[in-house]
Amino acid sequence: MAQKFWQLIPVNYKADPFVMKTSPIVLGRSGKCDIYIDTPSISETHIQFQLDKANLLVYDLDSAMGTFIDDEKIKSMEIKALRDEQKIKLVAGTIEFILQYSTDSIIPKEEKKIIQWFFIHQGKQYGPLKKEDLFKFIQDGLLVPADDVWHSGLDYYMKAFEVKGLFTQGYMNASDDKEIICPYCWNTFSIEDTLVISCHPELGGDKVLGESEQSRFLPSHFRPKGKAIDSKGLLCFEKACPTCHLKIPSDLLVKAPPIFIAVVGIPGSGKSYYLASTTWKLRTILNSYFSMDFLDVDPQINNWIAEYESLLFNKEKIIKTPFEVSHVYRQVKIDDMSITLPLPCMFFLKSYDKKSSLGGVNRVIVLYDNAGEHFQPGKDSAITPGTRYLSQAGGIVFLFDPTADIRFAQLLPSDIVQKMDRKLQRQDILLNEIISRLKNHLGLSVEDRYNKPIVFAVSKADLLNQCITSHDDDELLNIYETHKALNLSHIANISFNTRSFLKKYCPETINLIESFAETVIYLPVSALGSGVCEIDQDRHAKPIFVEIPILYILSKLGFIPSCKITDHSSVIDSYQVNSRFIDCKLPASDRYIQVPLLYSGYTITCPETHLSFQVPDVDNTTRL
Questions:
Q1: How many Å apart are CA 490 and CA 85, to the nearest integer?
Q2: Which member of 201, 301, 375, 585 lies 3.0 to 4.6 Å from 574 by CB, making a disulfide possible if both were Cys?
Q3: In the Cβ-directed half-sphere of 307, how many Cα atoms lie within 13 Å?
Q4: What letters, b where the CB count within 10 A reaches 16 and e where it falls short, cover 3-32?
Q5: Alpha carbon of 473 to those of 123, 466, 470, 491, 557: distances in Å?
Q6: pLDDT greater than 70 at residue 539
Q7: Largest CA-CA distance found in the chain, in angstroms, rounded
Q8: What is the pTM of this model?
């Protein structure tokens, strides 16, 4: 059966019929109204339409000339759904309309929404205009760089010189066709469709988030400088996604697209504490080494990770992250379906050193802490789409927990081994599920390989009896041409030795991930760095290496400087390239070692002979 919609058809005014598919919808003379009618008899905001299932609520917004339905002046009225042949006469000012509830088969095809521009010059407002019309006003001297400019859907003014293309020295903070990616439900939406969160206490209750939340609405009333007001007249400052209604930080609405980074692993692998110790370290490392700020986008959104940081560094007892606790997940109701969405933490990455080559970095980083249970087979569904952001991720950190694999028991402290029986898990199964979901969401074929960086991080590495050694920050963040940079040469050597160690104990897991992804590096990490699984009241966390996986991903994305330091170790003369590997003959030896192409051109140390050598620099597009 064809779907029906309310439509408003002008009779004595030249305009296309307006189809009401969302609400509220405001009709008026203001350029910021949903239905713009340019005539003096229409008030700035004249009528508001509200959909109530199949019925339509009509409200007169204290207009000067009133609103009439079938010749009766109204302040508000509920109109029941009509049959296709029924029509209602609506008059606003001197403009007559027909209201009808019809199937989409008789609704004219909607054209792409045209962005309407406005500006104020010497106290006079101009508009609505097309963007190309603005150039004529510039030529006539009626639009100058310091004038206030805005467009439909934008709830604040900008200066004309900020509009990209109007003046050669300018740029535009919020483009007229900018699409936002929601960090919760991952739907994209236009900036002009962003909802506003009401402020008045009487406007509580939201159809998506429940009675405990303030209502969300599409703004139609504005104060000077474009600030939206709710139906009770209070200024509103916070925005929300039009699909899931969760709060969207303002930085995501006016900056470049966010950087999504995933932290994944089995239940109990230490993801939450790894993430907390990482963000704790990044605040210092990024500032002191790279002259970059790493700041909370919104303290309220990041409150849950701040609590974990407090547990780690304020000498309190460690606890495991409960599955689907309120601060990590949120249940919303979309289209009458209850859906569980993850709540990430968000940070603003900004370079404040204008002399640096990274002086223009100005991005939001979104970090996810998924409960391991969400990666179990069958858990990726319409009501629990908590891992679908993986397709948007710029990089993935996979936390491998050696205390959940019996093959590492001989390397672990005896008290840890005694607890292993109740937590042993097949981590390759979870990894295979992640790979399957990525292939599905990205549409990868059997031959295609994943082209984003994956860091295979060995968590709780401090428990491995020094089989994997730690390293100082200064070794990894060397001075390079008077600037700090991530030392890829040192990371390459650590990664190869960690990989060699893991191949002895879990070769199937290494083969699985390397057959899927082009760029995989292996790093030891420890969120606690204490040699035990819990921190008592007299100790606090001393994280090891935790920030390097995120720094490496940022370097691959171009936001952190990196360098390759030349080493004069022995160069391999005899080698053979075989598929994804280089078979190298060790210097002064008859032994061969197989090295992934990723390490081409880097100097590494053979974990068995401890001989350092430079891997042949073969023609290869994949580099560490």
A1: 76
A2: 585
A3: 10
A4: ebbbbbbbeeeeeebbbbeebbbbbbbbbb
A5: 57, 18, 10, 11, 21
A6: no
A7: 101
A8: 0.68
